[in-house]
Amino acid sequence: MLKVSDDTTYAEAFAAAVKAYGDKPFLAAPAGAHRTYHQNGYEITFAQAARAVEALRAAYAKAGFGHGHRVAMLLDNRPEHFLHKLALNSLGACVVPVNPEYRPSELAYLLEHSEPDLAVVIPERRAQFEAGIAAARWKPPIVLFDAMDGLPSPKRPALAEPVTGRTPSSILYTSGTTGRPKGCVLSHGYELDAGIWYVTRGGLCDYRESGERVYSPLPAYHVNSSVMVFAAAIVGGH
After folding, report:
1. What value does the mean pLDDT take over residues 174-198?
2. Strand pairing partners for 142?
3. Contact 237, 21 (CB under 8 A)
4. Tens-digit pLDDT profile for residues 38-84
5. What's the half-sphere exposure (Cβ side, CA atoms, 13 Å) at 168?
6. Within 13 Å, how many C-alpha atoms sit on residue 220's CB side?
7. What's the rounded mean pLDDT across residues 212-235?
8. Which H, E and C letters describe the chain, residue by residue?
9. Paired strand residues for 185
10. Of 237, 234, 232, nearest to 205 (Cα)?
11. Residue 154 vs residues 57, 64, 69, 84, 158: alpha-carbon distances, Å
12. How far is CA 41 from CA 44, 51, 56, 153, 192, in A?
C-alpha cells in the first residue's frame, strides 16, 4: 500500500502508484452487449492510464484550465470518467460528476450551484445537458468527451497558488430526498484518505497488493465509485 498523508495530491499519489504497480490492471469494465460503449469490455493498466491521463492533462492545460476551475462531467459509467478526473485534478481543477437521470430543472440547479467553467459530455447526453443549460442562469460551454482538440478557454484565470491536499477534488451532490441536493466539496487528501480507509478494514474486506479486483455496482458519479473504490485502487494497487 502506498503511503499518503493529508497533504498528498492525486497527481502525487497516482504517480507513485504508476511507479509501484505500472503493469497491473487499474480500471476494468466487463463486456456488456447492452451498452453503446466498450461492448467487448475494457481494461487498462496503471502505466497505460498514466499515458492517457497525461494526454488529457495536456489538452486541458493548453486551453488554460488549472487550479480553481470546475468541470462538470456527464459521462454515464464510462471508465474514461476516472481518467478525466485524474487529468483535471492534477491541474488543480475540481470535477463535478453529473447524475445522468437529472431532469433539466435539476441540471440547472447543479449548474447554478457549482458554477462549472466547462461541461464534458458524451454525445448521447448533449441534448439533455443543453436543456439543463437552457433552464439555468449559469451557462458553461460544452465539449464532447471524445473531441478534446477544440477545448474553449475558461473565462476566469487559474489560481496562482500550488495544488495541495486541501485543494478541492470533487463536488458530489446528495440525493436531495429531503430538499435541494447538497454539494459536498471533497479535497484530494479527504478522497485519498477514504481509499486508505477502504484498504485497511481487514476481515472480509482484506485487500492484497496483487490479484485483487474490486467490483462496484454503483454509478461513476456516486461517492463509492468516484471516490472510495477509486482511491482504494490507487493507494492499494488493485
Report:
1. 91
2. 119
3. yes
4. 999 999 999 999 999 999 999 999 999 999 999 999 999 999 999 99
5. 18
6. 22
7. 92
8. CCCCCCCCCHHHHHHHHHHHHCCCEEEEECCCCCCCCCCCCEEEEHHHHHHHHHHHHHHHHHHCCCCCCEEEEECCCCCHHHHHHHHHHHHCCEEEECCCCCCHHHHHHHHHHHCCCEEEECHHHHHHHHHHHHCCCCCCCEEECCCHHHCCCCCCCCCCCCCCCCCEEEEEECCCCCCCCCEEEEEHHHHHHHHHHHHCCECCECCCCCCCCCCCCCCCCCHHHHHHHHHHHHHHCC
9. 171
10. 232
11. 15, 7, 8, 17, 9
12. 11, 20, 22, 34, 27
- Is residue 153 within 8 A of residue 63, CB to CB? The reply is yes
Q: How far does CA 226 lie from the centroid of its chain?
A: 6
- For residues 233 and 17, give the distance between their C-alpha atoms in angstroms, rounded to a whole number: 9
What residues form DSSP beta bridges with 42? Answer: 29
